[in-house]
């Protein structure tokens, strides 16, 4: 057992990196911080991608790492990124890989000659020991944390239905049934004439489309999704005004107000996106005022619309999609997958409406899976599920709630997993605000 560690951060992605940067800026000594995670700091699921075709889905001035210097990344990008294709009429949309490089360099710069303690592995379980936390690691080691911050991000996606793999070898399955496409390594295996099935119609599917077009794909692309619609393209937008939200909102009044506020024009226009982004500013505060029941009602009624429009896609990505459409090389198949089966060289997907889709490779673009570490915390009764049953519950100070709904004094959660409790916390800028808020709290404790 290691000796006690002052501040332990579980996770090594964007949230962990930005947390380290803000702790250091608040004067917390680097020697008091231990970071546990298997990858290069700052890259995580979004920015460690091998594919150069994966682009950021927001323009450069929205990737905020310091609230008091919002253009820090935009300036860095001008002098450190050579990417002539980044410029569009809606702003610069850089490669995700380059943003990962920015975050890694930012951490190194902030550290200077100091060093963090890094443990390149995963945490499998967290248990309470007196006033501290005991962490079990996947390398069989254990360590103790006095103050613990969980920043494990979006859990990698898993198949949303049963997969029958009886008739194929593990190697073939591994390369032809791509369960987690976020890093994009699978792309180099794809034959240019293959028929590809994309399961899901969100930003991950658009990433795959952009990458396949950039590598000159000739085969058909089938998109299985309940709706024949992709997130729209990012248009140039600026917030012009602040909406005057009615007081005492119910879910019904909330939806009505949003509907009336949004202009009746296409969601791909600047006019629509300006209004949408004006509404977004207050959403977290409003979300936090709703009861558990009201949050579930909202998720059921407008959850899918929210996921569709919250982020739009980069203009480069949508241009690739348009290219495929013009060549009739992309086809939507409406429905939800119930069973994936392999009949080499084909993969078949049975949908809930009885239709069977056939292709040579399937890419899972359906979104996030379940984080085993957070599930363990619930099973051990150290945490409770959030209202959406997608993660664990936290209070507005990011403190994890115990089984009596009381906040732990030394256990915090930051990043997208706080969404069910706090609202729209997925974008880099929202995570930065959390890290700044938590670093302010923690500087008094060390
Ligand atoms: C594919 C993808 C693309 C995205 N693109 C954009 C974008 O263009 N713009 C934008 O603003 N946002 C984007 N996002 C949103 C994203 O949520 C945030 O920008 C941000 O990257 C989340 O940071 P994070 O640290 O919480 O998660 P991550 O950066 O994913 O980091 C979590 C890290 O924790 C590690 N980890 C997990 N479990 C454990 C464990 N038990 N022990 C130790 N380590 C563990 C993982 O290996 C991972 O490296 C994207 C998200 C994804 C998934």
Helix content: 25-40%
Radius of gyration (Å): 22 Å
CATH architecture of the largest domain: 3-Layer(bba) Sandwich
Mean pLDDT: 94
- Strand element count: 19
Overall geometry comes to globular
CATH topology of the largest domain: FAD/NAD(P)-binding domain
Q: How many helices in DSSP terms? A: 14
CATH superfamily of the largest domain: FAD/NAD(P)-binding domain
Alpha-beta classification: alpha/beta
Instruction: Please identify the top-level CATH class of the largest domain.
Output: Alpha Beta
In the predicted model, the low-confidence regions spanning at least 5 consecutive residues are none
Count of the domains: 3
Bound molecules: flavin-adenine dinucleotide
Strand content: 15-25%
Walkthrough of the structure:
By secondary structure, this protein is an alpha/beta fold. Strands 1, 2, 5, 6, 7, 8, 18 and 19 form an 8-stranded mixed sheet that branches. Helix 1 runs parallel beside helix 4 and helix 6 crosses helix 11. Strand 14 and strand 15 form a beta hairpin. The chain starts with a strand and ends with a helix. It has 3 domains: 226 residues, FAD/NAD(P)-binding domain (3-Layer(bba) Sandwich); 124 residues, FAD/NAD(P)-binding domain (3-Layer(bba) Sandwich), CATH 3.50.50; 60 residues, no CATH class. Helices cover 33% and strands 20% of the residues. The structure holds flavin-adenine dinucleotide. Flavin-adenine dinucleotide (FAD) binds next to helix 1, helix 2 and helix 14.
How would you briefly describe this protein structure?
Strands 1, 2, 5, 6, 7, 8, 18 and 19 form an eight-stranded mixed sheet that branches. The chain is an alpha/beta fold and 446 residues long. The protein folds into three domains: 5-156 and 369-442, FAD/NAD(P)-binding domain (3-Layer(bba) Sandwich); 162-232 and 312-364, FAD/NAD(P)-binding domain (3-Layer(bba) Sandwich); 251-310, no CATH class.
């Amino acid at each position: 057992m290691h000796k006690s560690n002052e501040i332990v951060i579980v996770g090594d992605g964007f949230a962990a990196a930005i947390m380290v940067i803000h702790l250091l800026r608040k004067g917390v000594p680097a020697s008091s911080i231990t970071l546990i995670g298997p990858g290069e700091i700052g890259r995580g699921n979004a920015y460690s991608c091998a594919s150069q075709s994966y682009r950021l889905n927001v323009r450069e001035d929205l990737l905020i790492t310091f609230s008091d210097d919002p253009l820090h990344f935009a300036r860095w990008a001008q002098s450190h990124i050579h990417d002539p294709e980044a410029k569009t009429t809606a702003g610069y949309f850089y490669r995700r890989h380059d943003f990962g490089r920015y975050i890694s360099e930012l951490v190194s710069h902030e550290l200077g000659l100091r060093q963090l303690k890094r443990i390149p592995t995963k945490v499998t379980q967290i248990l309470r020991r007196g006033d501290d936390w005991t962490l079990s690691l996947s390398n069989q080691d254990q360590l103790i944390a006095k103050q613990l911050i969980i920043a494990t991000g979006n859990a990698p996606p898993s198949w949303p239905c049963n997969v029958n793999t009886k008739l194929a070898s593990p190697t073939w399955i591994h390369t032809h049934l791509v369960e987690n496409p976020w890093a994009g390594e699978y792309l180099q295996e794809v034959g240019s004439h293959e028929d590809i099935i994309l399961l899901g119609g969100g930003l991950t599917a658009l990433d795959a489309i952009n990458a396949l077009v950039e590598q000159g794909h000739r085969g058909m692309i089938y998109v299985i999704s309940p709706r024949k619609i992709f997130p729209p393209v990012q248009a140039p937008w600026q917030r012009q005004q602040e909406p005057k939200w009615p007081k005492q909102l119910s879910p019904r009044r909330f939806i009505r107000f949003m509907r009336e506020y949004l202009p009746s024009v296409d969601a791909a226009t600047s006019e629509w996106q300006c209004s949408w982004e004006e509404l977004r500013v207050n959403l977290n505060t409003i979300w936090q005022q709703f009861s558990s029941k009201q949050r579930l009602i909202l998720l059921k009624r407008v959850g899918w619309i929210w996921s569709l429009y919250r982020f739009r896609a980069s203009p480069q990505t949508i241009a690739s999609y348009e290219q495929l459409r013009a060549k009739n090389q992309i086809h939507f198949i409406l429905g939800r997958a119930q069973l994936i089966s392999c009949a080499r060289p084909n993969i078949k997907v049975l949908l809930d409406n009885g239709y069977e889709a056939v292709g040579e490779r399937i890419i899972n673009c359906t979104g996030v899976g379940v984080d085993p570490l957070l599930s363990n915390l619930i099973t051990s009764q150290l945490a409770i599920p959030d209202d959406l049953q997608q993660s664990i519950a936290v209070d507005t100070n990011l403190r994890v709630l115990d089984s009596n709904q009381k906040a732990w004094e030394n256990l915090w959660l930051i990043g997208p997993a706080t969404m069910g409790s706090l609202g729209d916390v997925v974008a880099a800028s929202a995570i930065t605000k959390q890290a700044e808020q938590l670093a302010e709290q923690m500087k008094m404790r060390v």
